[in-house]
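queue> pop job 88
queue> type: inverse folding (structure -> sequence)
queue> payload:
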């Protein structure tokens, strides 16, 4: 089982986001575990404040180091070895499928979700092992990025997908995008399912899918083909 611990100011986002569909079933079946830890529970401030003005001035607020550190210690002390701690940030390496595969090997992972202008650098230096971005744009908080990563990693955990084949033939697995998919009916708004898929000829279907996969990658993501050269 892979366990994800998420340090967040909005635990309800993580709890609801990871409780439906495939992730929800995986949790119930015990293939994954998701624990949302509310950073606000670890502030000593009587008003439960967890942020303050940035030193040096400037817009917005910064999340304070101490509540995050105490929340981290609370989960770390229950673990046998020091975990990898991922700070989701637009300043990190951009997440991709190979990274998801590598992280799926870890039994426990900790995610830190920032808000406002970000997090006091000192606690990042103290606890973070990996800085990961989900793309070159800025979101309001780290919960969606953490959930994106948890979803992508969980699909690779044995038992999470019903059909093991699904992950194997997915986009990126062989360095290309997946071929187009069709289901019933055989005709929709005058558009027919390609004849070959109805032929029952596995060899020809395989050939067709390979070709489509290549053509689609060439059209939409030629950078992937360059990478494989
Ligand atoms: N001031 C920060 C900067 O310029 O890098 C951006 C802070 S952002 C408004 C608030 C939080 O959202 C970040 O601390 C981070 O946890 C999360 N976040 C925003 N965009 C993200 C992205 N593309 N990938 C991962 N996390 C992101």
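queue> result:
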């Amino acid at each position: 089982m892979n366990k994800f611990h998420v340090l967040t100011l909005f635990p309800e986002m993580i709890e609801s986001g990871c409780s439906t569909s495939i992730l929800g079933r995986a949790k119930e079946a015990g293939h994954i575990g998701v624990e949302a830890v509310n950073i606000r529970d670890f502030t000593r401030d009587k008003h439960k404040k967890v942020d303050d003005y940035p030193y040096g001035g400037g817009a917005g607020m910064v999340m304070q180091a101490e509540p995050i550190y105490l929340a981290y210690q609370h989960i770390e002390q229950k673990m046998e070895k020091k975990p990898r701690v991922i700070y989701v940030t637009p300043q990190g390496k951009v997440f991709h499928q190979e990274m998801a595969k590598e992280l799926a090997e870890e039994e426990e992972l900790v995610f830190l979700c920032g808000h406002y202008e970000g997090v006091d650098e000192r606690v990042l230096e103290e606890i973070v092992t990996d800085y990961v971005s989900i793309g070159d744009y800025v979101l309001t908080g780290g919960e969606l990025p953490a959930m994106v990563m948890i979803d992508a990693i969980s699909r690779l955990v044995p038992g999470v997908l019903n059909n093991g084949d699904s992950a194997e033939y997915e986009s990126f697995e062989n360095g290309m995008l997946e071929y187009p998919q069709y289901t019933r009916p055989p005709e929709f708004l005058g558009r027919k399912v390609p004849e070959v898929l109805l032929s029952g000829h596995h060899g020809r279907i395989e050939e067709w899918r390979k070709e489509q996969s290549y053509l689609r990658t060439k059209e939409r993501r030629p950078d992937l083909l360059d990478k494989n050269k």
